[in-house]
Structures are given as C-alpha cells and as structure tokens.
Amino acid sequence: QPLVFFEPSCLSAIREDAPDLLRGEARVRAKRVAAQAALFEEYVARVWPDTLTLQSGPTRVLLHGHCHQTSMGALEPARTLLGRIPKATVVDLEAGCCGMAGSFGYDRDRYDVSKAIGERRLLPAARALAAGEVLVASGTSCRHQVEDLTGVRALHAAELVSSLLPESA
User: Fold this and answer.
1) Is 101 within 8 Å of 72 (Cβ atoms)?
2) Mind giving me the DSSP string for the chain?
3) Angstrom distance (rounded) from CA 13 to CA 30
4) Does residue 78 contact residue 110 with C-beta atoms inside 8 Å?
5) How far is Cα 126 from Cα 3, in angstroms, rounded to an integer?
C-alpha cells in the first residue's frame, strides 16, 4: 500500500531518517515502509503518468522547492505535475531555503536571520506575483513564511491541481 505525504520533511523522516536510525529487523521494516512512501507529486506521477488531465488555470506557476524535497530529488515530479496545466509556464525559483526551517524562524533570536534568508529570493518573488500567477510550495513552513511576511498565500500543489480537475473527474 502506498503511503502518500504532503509535507516533504515528514517524507524525509520516513524515507531517510527512520531506516538510518534503526537496526536489525526494525530497520528492515522501516525500509519496507520507506519504499512505499512518496510525496504527493511523486504518487500522482506513478498513478497517472500520462492520463491526468487538468483545466487551464494560472498562466505562470512559481515553484518553491522545500529543502527536504530538493535534497531527496523530489522536485522534478512537482515540475512535471505543474507542467500539465495547459498554457502555464512553470518557473523553478531555485530560491533555496525559505528561512523558516520548521520552527527556526519563530524563535525570537533567529527571526531576523529567518527573514533575511527568505528575502534573498522567495519573498520578493511572492510580492512580485501578477494577476494570473501563483506560487506553489509543498512545505507547510514555507507557505507560512511567505504568508506571514508578504501576505501572499502560497498553495500546495495538491490544492492547485484539485482546483483544476475537470468537473467529471
């Protein structure tokens, strides 16, 4: 049975951390679970490699890769999935870390560092969104960082894709 994740850091814990931390039979079981674990975008690519049809939506999709999503090589399935949106251009921001890093950015002593990291690329890109454009970020903390510091609501790929499914789907 597949185990589908919407948060890249949670997938990383199951796919990478658990098997590395455990030994013996527990490690064998953890590896079996890890083999069934997939990020939402990876799962969609497996189940509907060529058959998922979407309606037109935004003309430009800015994609922010979560740190864990990027480190696991799981950003390409997101680009591919978003690339199925008719007439949309997908732009990988290659912004690096959003600066939040879980709860890091909420710490009073780290807030300025967190904000400075986000201001390198991600936050200015969010502020510059035009009509017909959307920002997609899989990470919960990434979406919070963007909304908290810019007022822009970034979407999870699942939200955008579900809004573009044909009514008969």
Assistant:
1) no
2) --EEESSHHHHHIIIIIHHHH--HHHHHHHHHHHHHEEEHHHHHHHH-TTT-------SEEEEE--HHHHHTT-SHHHHHHHTTSTTPEEEE------S-TTTGGGSTTTHHHHHHHHHTTHHHHHHT--TTEEEEE--HHHHHHHHHHH----B-HHHHHHHTS-TT-
3) 11
4) no
5) 31
Considering the entire predicted model, what is its pTM?
0.91
Question: Which token pair is 132?
Answer: 């017909």
Distances (CA, A) of 17 to 5, 30, 31, 53, 130: 15, 9, 10, 35, 39
Query: What is the pLDDT tens value at each position of the chain, 169 positions in all?
Result: 899 999 999 999 999 999 999 999 999 999 999 999 999 999 999 999 888 999 999 999 999 999 889 888 889 999 999 999 999 999 999 888 888 887 777 888 888 999 999 999 999 999 999 999 999 999 999 999 999 999 999 999 999 999 999 985 5
